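Field reference: sequence -> structure
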Amino acid sequence: MIAIRKYAASTAAVVSVALLARLIYLFLFFHGQPPHTARYLIGEETGSIAAAIAAGHGFSTPLYTPSGPTAWVTPIFPYLLAAVFKVFGTYTFHASMAIRSLNILFSALTCYPIILIGRRLFGNAAGLAAGWIWAFLPMAIYFPVAWVWEMSLAALTLTIALWMTYVIEDREDAPAWTVYGFLWGFAALVSAAVLSVFPGCFLFALYRRKQRGGDWLRLGSFAALAFAVTVSPWIIRNQIVFHGKVLFRSNFGLELWLGNNPQVPDTWAWWLHPLDSPKEHEEFFRIGEIAYMHAKEQAAVQFIKTHPADVLRFQFHRFMETWTGNSDSFADIWSTHKPLLRAQLLLNYTLTIFAFLGLLFAHRKGPRLSLPLLNVVVVFPIVYYLCHTTARYRHPIDPVLAILSAYAVAHCARAIPRWAKSEPLKKRTVPATAD
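Structure field:
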Protein backbone atom coordinates (compact mmCIF):
# COMPACT_ATOMS: atom_id res chain seq x y z
CA MET A 1 0.00 0.00 0.00
CA ILE A 2 2.82 2.37 0.87
CA ALA A 3 4.53 1.58 -2.43
CA ILE A 4 1.31 2.28 -4.33
CA ARG A 5 0.85 5.62 -2.58
CA LYS A 6 4.45 6.53 -3.27
CA TYR A 7 4.05 5.70 -6.95
CA ALA A 8 0.77 7.64 -7.16
CA ALA A 9 2.61 10.66 -5.76
CA SER A 10 5.26 10.47 -8.50
CA THR A 11 5.37 12.48 -11.70
CA ALA A 12 5.90 9.31 -13.70
CA ALA A 13 2.58 7.93 -12.46
CA VAL A 14 0.71 11.08 -13.48
CA VAL A 15 2.24 11.08 -16.96
CA SER A 16 1.63 7.36 -17.42
CA VAL A 17 -2.02 7.58 -16.42
CA ALA A 18 -2.51 10.67 -18.60
CA LEU A 19 -1.01 8.81 -21.55
CA LEU A 20 -3.16 5.74 -20.91
CA ALA A 21 -6.37 7.77 -20.63
CA ARG A 22 -5.69 9.46 -23.97
CA LEU A 23 -4.76 6.20 -25.69
CA ILE A 24 -8.01 4.63 -24.50
CA TYR A 25 -9.94 7.55 -25.95
CA LEU A 26 -7.98 7.24 -29.20
CA PHE A 27 -9.12 3.62 -29.48
CA LEU A 28 -12.74 4.61 -28.75
CA PHE A 29 -12.49 7.50 -31.21
CA PHE A 30 -11.52 5.21 -34.11
CA HIS A 31 -13.84 2.41 -33.12
CA GLY A 32 -16.41 2.13 -35.89
CA GLN A 33 -14.52 4.49 -38.22
CA PRO A 34 -14.40 3.78 -41.98
CA PRO A 35 -12.02 1.07 -43.32
CA HIS A 36 -8.31 1.74 -43.20
CA THR A 37 -8.27 2.37 -46.93
CA ALA A 38 -10.41 5.50 -46.53
CA ARG A 39 -8.91 8.92 -47.22
CA TYR A 40 -8.61 10.89 -43.98
CA LEU A 41 -8.86 14.64 -44.52
CA ILE A 42 -7.19 15.75 -41.32
CA GLY A 43 -6.12 19.16 -40.13
CA GLU A 44 -8.20 21.33 -42.48
CA GLU A 45 -5.96 24.30 -43.42
CA THR A 46 -3.01 22.84 -41.51
CA GLY A 47 -3.48 19.47 -43.17
CA SER A 48 -3.74 21.01 -46.60
CA ILE A 49 -0.51 22.97 -46.11
CA ALA A 50 1.22 19.85 -44.78
CA ALA A 51 0.07 17.87 -47.82
CA ALA A 52 1.52 20.55 -50.10
CA ILE A 53 4.84 20.42 -48.24
CA ALA A 54 4.93 16.63 -48.42
CA ALA A 55 4.24 16.82 -52.17
CA GLY A 56 7.17 19.19 -52.67
CA HIS A 57 5.12 22.34 -53.29
CA GLY A 58 6.39 24.24 -50.26
CA PHE A 59 4.43 26.05 -47.57
CA SER A 60 1.29 26.69 -49.62
CA THR A 61 -2.29 25.74 -50.46
CA PRO A 62 -4.36 26.21 -47.27
CA LEU A 63 -7.72 25.39 -48.92
CA TYR A 64 -6.90 22.06 -50.64
CA THR A 65 -6.87 23.61 -54.13
CA PRO A 66 -3.40 24.88 -55.15
CA SER A 67 -3.20 28.61 -54.40
CA GLY A 68 0.47 29.44 -54.00
CA PRO A 69 2.48 30.42 -50.90
CA THR A 70 0.63 31.04 -47.66
CA ALA A 71 1.15 32.31 -44.13
CA TRP A 72 -2.24 31.11 -42.88
CA VAL A 73 -0.66 29.35 -39.90
CA THR A 74 2.76 29.32 -38.26
CA PRO A 75 5.18 26.68 -39.56
CA ILE A 76 6.11 24.19 -36.82
CA PHE A 77 3.04 21.97 -36.74
CA PRO A 78 2.42 21.90 -40.53
CA TYR A 79 6.02 20.76 -41.06
CA LEU A 80 5.60 18.14 -38.34
CA LEU A 81 2.42 16.88 -39.99
CA ALA A 82 4.17 16.95 -43.38
CA ALA A 83 6.88 14.68 -41.97
CA VAL A 84 4.16 12.30 -40.78
CA PHE A 85 2.62 12.37 -44.27
CA LYS A 86 5.99 11.58 -45.85
CA VAL A 87 6.45 8.55 -43.60
CA PHE A 88 2.90 7.18 -43.44
CA GLY A 89 1.31 8.59 -46.59
CA THR A 90 -0.73 11.73 -47.14
CA TYR A 91 -4.21 11.60 -45.60
CA THR A 92 -3.96 7.91 -44.75
CA PHE A 93 -5.33 6.11 -41.72
CA HIS A 94 -1.81 5.42 -40.45
CA ALA A 95 -0.88 9.10 -40.80
CA SER A 96 -4.01 10.06 -38.89
CA MET A 97 -3.16 7.62 -36.10
CA ALA A 98 0.47 8.78 -36.00
CA ILE A 99 -0.22 12.50 -35.69
CA ARG A 100 -2.94 11.95 -33.09
CA SER A 101 -0.55 9.73 -31.14
CA LEU A 102 2.01 12.53 -31.20
CA ASN A 103 -0.63 14.95 -29.95
CA ILE A 104 -1.41 12.51 -27.16
CA LEU A 105 2.27 12.34 -26.23
CA PHE A 106 2.51 16.16 -26.17
CA SER A 107 -0.56 16.37 -23.95
CA ALA A 108 0.66 13.70 -21.51
CA LEU A 109 4.12 15.26 -21.27
CA THR A 110 2.51 18.58 -20.33
CA CYS A 111 1.99 17.05 -16.89
CA TYR A 112 5.71 17.54 -16.20
CA PRO A 113 5.90 21.35 -16.42
CA ILE A 114 2.47 21.63 -14.79
CA ILE A 115 3.71 19.76 -11.73
CA LEU A 116 6.98 21.69 -11.68
CA ILE A 117 5.24 25.06 -11.73
CA GLY A 118 2.73 23.99 -9.11
CA ARG A 119 5.46 22.70 -6.80
CA ARG A 120 7.62 25.80 -7.18
CA LEU A 121 4.81 28.25 -6.49
CA PHE A 122 2.36 26.45 -4.23
CA GLY A 123 4.00 23.33 -2.80
CA ASN A 124 4.25 19.66 -3.64
CA ALA A 125 0.60 18.81 -2.93
CA ALA A 126 -0.74 21.54 -5.23
CA GLY A 127 1.72 20.61 -7.97
CA LEU A 128 0.77 16.95 -7.87
CA ALA A 129 -2.95 17.80 -7.77
CA ALA A 130 -2.49 20.02 -10.84
CA GLY A 131 -0.87 17.14 -12.69
CA TRP A 132 -3.73 14.79 -11.85
CA ILE A 133 -6.31 17.40 -12.88
CA TRP A 134 -4.60 17.67 -16.28
CA ALA A 135 -4.35 13.89 -16.58
CA PHE A 136 -8.12 13.51 -16.34
CA LEU A 137 -9.31 16.86 -17.68
CA PRO A 138 -11.84 15.92 -20.41
CA MET A 139 -10.72 18.72 -22.75
CA ALA A 140 -7.10 17.62 -22.40
CA ILE A 141 -8.14 14.09 -23.36
CA TYR A 142 -10.49 15.10 -26.17
CA PHE A 143 -8.52 17.71 -28.12
CA PRO A 144 -5.31 15.74 -28.80
CA VAL A 145 -7.37 12.97 -30.36
CA ALA A 146 -10.22 14.80 -32.06
CA TRP A 147 -8.31 17.78 -33.49
CA VAL A 148 -5.25 17.54 -35.70
CA TRP A 149 -4.10 21.02 -34.85
CA GLU A 150 -1.31 22.65 -32.86
CA MET A 151 -3.19 23.10 -29.53
CA SER A 152 -1.55 20.21 -27.67
CA LEU A 153 1.96 21.13 -28.75
CA ALA A 154 1.20 24.80 -27.98
CA ALA A 155 0.01 23.87 -24.49
CA LEU A 156 3.23 21.92 -23.89
CA THR A 157 5.62 24.59 -25.18
CA LEU A 158 3.80 27.47 -23.49
CA THR A 159 3.78 25.66 -20.14
CA ILE A 160 7.49 24.85 -20.40
CA ALA A 161 8.22 28.49 -21.30
CA LEU A 162 6.15 29.63 -18.32
CA TRP A 163 8.07 27.26 -16.02
CA MET A 164 11.37 28.63 -17.33
CA THR A 165 10.10 32.14 -16.64
CA TYR A 166 10.08 31.23 -12.95
CA VAL A 167 13.36 29.28 -12.81
CA ILE A 168 15.52 31.45 -15.08
CA GLU A 169 15.91 34.03 -12.32
CA ASP A 170 18.28 31.61 -10.55
CA ARG A 171 20.58 31.36 -13.58
CA GLU A 172 23.43 33.77 -14.29
CA ASP A 173 24.81 32.01 -17.35
CA ALA A 174 24.22 33.18 -20.90
CA PRO A 175 23.44 29.68 -22.31
CA ALA A 176 20.44 29.29 -19.99
CA TRP A 177 19.02 32.65 -21.02
CA THR A 178 19.69 31.83 -24.67
CA VAL A 179 17.67 28.62 -24.31
CA TYR A 180 14.94 30.67 -22.63
CA GLY A 181 14.69 33.01 -25.62
CA PHE A 182 14.81 30.12 -28.09
CA LEU A 183 12.00 28.32 -26.26
CA TRP A 184 9.71 31.34 -26.46
CA GLY A 185 10.54 31.75 -30.14
CA PHE A 186 9.79 28.09 -30.82
CA ALA A 187 6.49 28.38 -28.92
CA ALA A 188 5.55 31.40 -31.03
CA LEU A 189 6.23 29.45 -34.21
CA VAL A 190 3.96 26.71 -32.90
CA SER A 191 1.15 29.18 -32.16
CA ALA A 192 1.24 32.89 -32.92
CA ALA A 193 -1.13 33.51 -29.99
CA VAL A 194 1.81 32.82 -27.64
CA LEU A 195 3.37 36.10 -28.79
CA SER A 196 0.78 38.00 -26.75
CA VAL A 197 2.07 36.70 -23.40
CA PHE A 198 5.80 36.67 -24.19
CA PRO A 199 6.52 40.37 -23.38
CA GLY A 200 4.93 40.20 -19.94
CA CYS A 201 6.70 36.96 -18.98
CA PHE A 202 10.03 38.18 -20.36
CA LEU A 203 9.84 41.46 -18.42
CA PHE A 204 8.94 39.53 -15.26
CA ALA A 205 12.00 37.30 -15.67
CA LEU A 206 14.23 40.33 -16.21
CA TYR A 207 12.79 42.10 -13.17
CA ARG A 208 13.36 39.07 -10.94
CA ARG A 209 16.92 38.67 -12.23
CA LYS A 210 17.60 42.37 -11.59
CA GLN A 211 16.38 41.98 -8.01
CA ARG A 212 18.93 39.22 -7.47
CA GLY A 213 21.74 41.35 -8.83
CA GLY A 214 24.17 40.52 -11.58
CA ASP A 215 24.33 41.61 -15.20
CA TRP A 216 20.61 41.21 -15.91
CA LEU A 217 20.73 43.44 -18.99
CA ARG A 218 23.35 41.27 -20.68
CA LEU A 219 21.45 38.09 -19.87
CA GLY A 220 18.21 39.60 -21.14
CA SER A 221 19.97 40.58 -24.36
CA PHE A 222 20.98 36.96 -24.95
CA ALA A 223 17.37 35.84 -24.50
CA ALA A 224 16.00 38.56 -26.76
CA LEU A 225 18.59 37.80 -29.44
CA ALA A 226 17.82 34.08 -29.28
CA PHE A 227 14.11 34.81 -29.63
CA ALA A 228 14.74 37.09 -32.63
CA VAL A 229 17.03 34.57 -34.31
CA THR A 230 14.45 31.80 -33.83
CA VAL A 231 11.51 33.66 -35.38
CA SER A 232 13.41 35.72 -37.96
CA PRO A 233 13.59 33.07 -40.74
CA TRP A 234 9.81 32.83 -40.76
CA ILE A 235 9.38 36.61 -40.69
CA ILE A 236 11.97 37.18 -43.40
CA ARG A 237 10.34 34.52 -45.57
CA ASN A 238 6.95 36.21 -45.22
CA GLN A 239 8.35 39.67 -45.88
CA ILE A 240 10.01 38.48 -49.08
CA VAL A 241 7.22 36.25 -50.38
CA PHE A 242 4.40 38.69 -49.60
CA HIS A 243 6.33 41.90 -50.34
CA GLY A 244 6.26 43.27 -46.81
CA LYS A 245 2.54 42.75 -46.26
CA VAL A 246 2.72 39.81 -43.81
CA LEU A 247 4.72 39.56 -40.61
CA PHE A 248 3.68 36.40 -38.73
CA ARG A 249 0.31 35.22 -40.04
CA SER A 250 -1.86 36.35 -42.93
CA ASN A 251 -5.36 35.36 -41.82
CA PHE A 252 -6.13 37.94 -39.13
CA GLY A 253 -8.42 39.90 -41.46
CA LEU A 254 -10.56 36.85 -42.19
CA GLU A 255 -10.81 35.84 -38.51
CA LEU A 256 -11.75 39.38 -37.51
CA TRP A 257 -14.42 39.53 -40.22
CA LEU A 258 -15.89 36.13 -39.34
CA GLY A 259 -16.65 37.51 -35.88
CA ASN A 260 -17.65 41.03 -36.92
CA ASN A 261 -20.07 41.20 -39.83
CA PRO A 262 -23.85 41.66 -40.29
CA GLN A 263 -24.52 37.90 -40.38
CA VAL A 264 -22.99 37.11 -36.97
CA PRO A 265 -25.71 35.83 -34.59
CA ASP A 266 -23.82 35.74 -31.27
CA THR A 267 -20.11 34.98 -31.67
CA TRP A 268 -19.14 34.34 -35.30
CA ALA A 269 -20.42 33.30 -38.73
CA TRP A 270 -18.50 30.08 -39.32
CA TRP A 271 -20.39 29.27 -42.52
CA LEU A 272 -18.73 32.24 -44.23
CA HIS A 273 -15.29 30.63 -44.00
CA PRO A 274 -13.83 29.91 -47.45
CA LEU A 275 -13.81 26.19 -46.60
CA ASP A 276 -17.59 26.29 -46.03
CA SER A 277 -18.80 29.05 -48.36
CA PRO A 278 -18.48 28.52 -52.14
CA LYS A 279 -18.81 32.27 -52.65
CA GLU A 280 -15.95 33.10 -50.28
CA HIS A 281 -13.90 30.21 -51.67
CA GLU A 282 -14.25 31.63 -55.17
CA GLU A 283 -13.42 35.15 -53.99
CA PHE A 284 -10.27 33.90 -52.23
CA PHE A 285 -8.95 32.33 -55.41
CA ARG A 286 -10.06 35.24 -57.58
CA ILE A 287 -8.06 37.97 -55.82
CA GLY A 288 -5.47 35.95 -53.90
CA GLU A 289 -4.77 35.36 -50.20
CA ILE A 290 -3.28 38.72 -49.23
CA ALA A 291 -5.83 40.86 -51.06
CA TYR A 292 -8.64 38.72 -49.70
CA MET A 293 -7.45 39.06 -46.11
CA HIS A 294 -6.98 42.80 -46.50
CA ALA A 295 -10.49 43.22 -47.89
CA LYS A 296 -11.98 41.23 -45.00
CA GLU A 297 -10.06 43.28 -42.46
CA GLN A 298 -11.37 46.51 -43.97
CA ALA A 299 -14.94 45.17 -43.93
CA ALA A 300 -14.59 44.07 -40.31
CA VAL A 301 -13.15 47.41 -39.18
CA GLN A 302 -15.96 49.25 -40.94
CA PHE A 303 -18.56 47.06 -39.22
CA ILE A 304 -16.91 47.59 -35.83
CA LYS A 305 -17.01 51.37 -36.32
CA THR A 306 -20.66 51.45 -37.39
CA HIS A 307 -22.11 48.79 -35.05
CA PRO A 308 -20.49 49.31 -31.63
CA ALA A 309 -23.44 47.89 -29.67
CA ASP A 310 -23.47 44.67 -31.71
CA VAL A 311 -19.69 44.33 -31.37
CA LEU A 312 -19.91 44.67 -27.57
CA ARG A 313 -22.62 42.01 -27.53
CA PHE A 314 -20.47 39.69 -29.64
CA GLN A 315 -17.50 40.25 -27.34
CA PHE A 316 -19.58 39.45 -24.27
CA HIS A 317 -20.72 36.19 -25.86
CA ARG A 318 -17.14 35.35 -26.84
CA PHE A 319 -15.94 36.09 -23.32
CA MET A 320 -18.58 33.73 -21.93
CA GLU A 321 -17.77 31.06 -24.50
CA THR A 322 -14.06 31.31 -23.73
CA TRP A 323 -14.56 30.65 -20.05
CA THR A 324 -17.52 28.26 -20.15
CA GLY A 325 -16.78 26.35 -23.36
CA ASN A 326 -20.41 26.81 -24.41
CA SER A 327 -21.40 28.25 -27.78
CA ASP A 328 -25.12 27.46 -27.62
CA SER A 329 -27.82 29.53 -26.04
CA PHE A 330 -27.89 28.90 -22.30
CA ALA A 331 -31.69 28.86 -22.40
CA ASP A 332 -31.65 26.08 -25.00
CA ILE A 333 -29.36 23.96 -22.86
CA TRP A 334 -31.59 24.04 -19.80
CA SER A 335 -34.87 23.77 -21.68
CA THR A 336 -33.93 20.60 -23.58
CA HIS A 337 -32.62 17.18 -22.66
CA LYS A 338 -28.86 17.49 -23.09
CA PRO A 339 -27.32 15.87 -20.00
CA LEU A 340 -23.85 15.51 -21.50
CA LEU A 341 -23.79 19.14 -22.55
CA ARG A 342 -24.98 20.19 -19.11
CA ALA A 343 -22.25 18.10 -17.49
CA GLN A 344 -19.66 19.69 -19.77
CA LEU A 345 -20.96 23.15 -18.92
CA LEU A 346 -20.83 22.36 -15.20
CA LEU A 347 -17.27 21.06 -15.52
CA ASN A 348 -16.13 24.12 -17.47
CA TYR A 349 -17.72 26.46 -14.94
CA THR A 350 -16.07 24.54 -12.10
CA LEU A 351 -12.63 24.74 -13.72
CA THR A 352 -13.01 28.45 -14.41
CA ILE A 353 -14.32 29.31 -10.95
CA PHE A 354 -11.58 27.37 -9.18
CA ALA A 355 -8.95 28.85 -11.49
CA PHE A 356 -10.06 32.39 -10.68
CA LEU A 357 -10.14 31.51 -6.98
CA GLY A 358 -6.64 30.10 -7.28
CA LEU A 359 -5.49 33.29 -8.99
CA LEU A 360 -6.96 35.32 -6.12
CA PHE A 361 -5.27 33.15 -3.50
CA ALA A 362 -1.99 33.29 -5.45
CA HIS A 363 -2.18 37.08 -5.58
CA ARG A 364 -2.69 37.23 -1.83
CA LYS A 365 0.21 34.87 -1.23
CA GLY A 366 2.63 36.70 -3.48
CA PRO A 367 1.32 39.44 -5.81
CA ARG A 368 4.50 39.59 -7.84
CA LEU A 369 4.93 35.83 -8.20
CA SER A 370 1.40 35.52 -9.60
CA LEU A 371 2.03 38.07 -12.37
CA PRO A 372 3.02 35.59 -15.12
CA LEU A 373 -0.09 33.51 -14.37
CA LEU A 374 -2.24 36.64 -14.43
CA ASN A 375 -0.56 37.70 -17.67
CA VAL A 376 -1.43 34.40 -19.35
CA VAL A 377 -5.04 34.29 -18.11
CA VAL A 378 -5.82 37.92 -18.98
CA VAL A 379 -3.81 38.63 -22.12
CA PHE A 380 -3.91 35.36 -24.08
CA PRO A 381 -7.68 35.34 -24.84
CA ILE A 382 -7.93 39.03 -25.84
CA VAL A 383 -7.48 38.41 -29.56
CA TYR A 384 -10.26 35.81 -29.43
CA TYR A 385 -12.62 38.27 -27.75
CA LEU A 386 -12.01 40.55 -30.74
CA CYS A 387 -12.30 37.88 -33.46
CA HIS A 388 -14.05 34.65 -32.47
CA THR A 389 -13.39 31.77 -30.15
CA THR A 390 -13.95 28.12 -29.37
CA ALA A 391 -12.86 25.96 -26.45
CA ARG A 392 -9.87 24.67 -28.41
CA TYR A 393 -8.51 28.21 -28.88
CA ARG A 394 -8.19 28.50 -25.10
CA HIS A 395 -6.60 25.08 -24.73
CA PRO A 396 -2.94 26.27 -24.71
CA ILE A 397 -3.59 28.05 -21.39
CA ASP A 398 -5.67 25.25 -19.85
CA PRO A 399 -2.54 23.95 -18.02
CA VAL A 400 -2.41 27.27 -16.17
CA LEU A 401 -6.07 26.86 -15.22
CA ALA A 402 -5.28 23.37 -13.94
CA ILE A 403 -2.45 24.75 -11.78
CA LEU A 404 -4.60 27.53 -10.36
CA SER A 405 -7.53 25.18 -9.75
CA ALA A 406 -5.30 22.75 -7.90
CA TYR A 407 -3.95 25.56 -5.73
CA ALA A 408 -7.49 26.71 -4.93
CA VAL A 409 -8.44 23.19 -3.87
CA ALA A 410 -5.24 22.76 -1.83
CA HIS A 411 -5.70 26.17 -0.21
CA CYS A 412 -9.28 25.39 0.79
CA ALA A 413 -8.30 21.91 1.99
CA ARG A 414 -5.75 23.44 4.33
CA ALA A 415 -8.02 26.24 5.47
CA ILE A 416 -11.07 24.15 6.37
CA PRO A 417 -9.38 22.00 9.07
CA ARG A 418 -7.84 25.12 10.60
CA TRP A 419 -11.24 26.76 10.68
CA ALA A 420 -12.89 23.63 12.10
CA LYS A 421 -10.27 23.29 14.85
CA SER A 422 -10.34 26.95 15.85
CA GLU A 423 -11.61 27.47 19.39
CA PRO A 424 -15.10 28.92 19.65
CA LEU A 425 -15.52 32.28 21.28
CA LYS A 426 -15.58 31.95 24.99
CA LYS A 427 -18.88 32.61 26.55
CA ARG A 428 -19.03 35.77 28.51
CA THR A 429 -19.13 34.91 32.23
CA VAL A 430 -21.12 36.87 34.77
CA PRO A 431 -19.44 37.19 38.14
CA ALA A 432 -21.38 35.59 40.99
CA THR A 433 -22.96 37.92 43.56
CA ALA A 434 -23.19 37.30 47.26
CA ASP A 435 -26.52 36.40 48.68
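Note: Confidence is low (pLDDT under 50) at residues 329-337, 425-435.
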